[in-house]
Write a structure and sequence with these properties.
Low-confidence stretches of chain B: none
Number of helices of chain B: 0
Distance between the termini of chain A: 37 Å
Largest interface: A-B, 25 and 29 residues
Strand content of chain A: over 45%
Strand content of chain B: over 45%
Order of helices and strands of chain B: EEEEEEEEEEE
Shape of chain B: globular
Oligomer: heterodimer
Number of helices of chain A: 0
Distance between the termini of chain B: 37 Å
Mean pLDDT of chain A: 89
């Protein structure tokens, strides 16, 4: 039968407010990180990436912060819109010349009108 | 931008039958493709890395005889779930590595009855 899945943590944000989604990664050797957005029934979409030699990167309405000391990533979304409602995953590339990505558990973002 | 087409998007099959899922990079060549599995409300779990012209590399715990991967060309990788059982029901997603980074397919929802 179907596996019993973990319930994703949910972040509820009022439309127009800023959202902060957090992710703890596992491997201190990881050298590249990506945030993905996944809408229901669809594959993940790239949002923004950051290399381990950076601690901040900004895109359009999104900012990723990397804290290597505590192995923590965050995704900040400015002026959250209803279309931002989705599940957000961080993914780490474990380095060593491999192209493997390990995905975090994900956070569901709900934008309240 | 880079587009990855995954087909079919949804398939229902009888227990014991095999199902083939295709992943195509439409406008770029992908020497490496990845296959993920996602249970409801869970993150993406990497199943295997598909390398054009060579054998796939499977993650620990993934049965290579159960999940057959073929990457016969630079634009096509296939995943065949052999002798499917209800516990194989899941959302399967491929991704391909191109010049612009990693692009995901739209996913295939497999339901085994």
């Amino acid at each position: 039968g179907e596996s019993v899945g973990l319930h994703l943590p949910t972040l509820s944000v009022q439309e127009g407010d800023n959202s902060i989604i957090n992710c703890a990664y596992s491997n201190s050797a990881s050298d590249y990180f990506i945030w993905y957005k996944q809408e229901s029934g669809k594959g993940p979409q790239f949002i923004i990436d950051i290399r381990s030699n950076m601690d901040k990167r900004q895109g359009q309405r999104v900012t990723v912060l990397l804290n290597k000391t505590v192995k923590h990533l965050s995704l900040q979304i400015a002026a959250t819109q209803p279309g931002d409602s989705a599940v957000y995953f961080c993914a780490e590339n474990i380095g060593g010349g491999t192209y493997k990505y390990i995905f975090g558990t994900g956070t569901r973002l709900k934008v309240l009108a | 931008g880079a587009v990855v087409s995954q087909h079919p998007s949804w398939v229902i099959c009888k227990s014991g039958t095999s199902v083939k899922i295709e992943c195509r990079s439409l406008d770029f060549q992908a020497t490496t493709m990845f296959w993920y599995r996602q249970f409801p409300k869970q993150s993406l779990m990497l199943m295997a890395t598909s390398n054009e012209g060579s054998k796939a590399t499977y993650e620990q715990g993934v049965e290579k005889d159960k999940f057959l991967i073929n990457h016969a060309s630079l634009t096509l990788s296939t995943l065949t779930v052999t002798s499917a059982h209800p516990e194989d029901s899941s959302f399967y997603i491929c991704s391909a590595r191109g010049r612009e980074g990693y692009t995901f397919g739209s996913g295939t929802r497999l339901t085994v009855v």
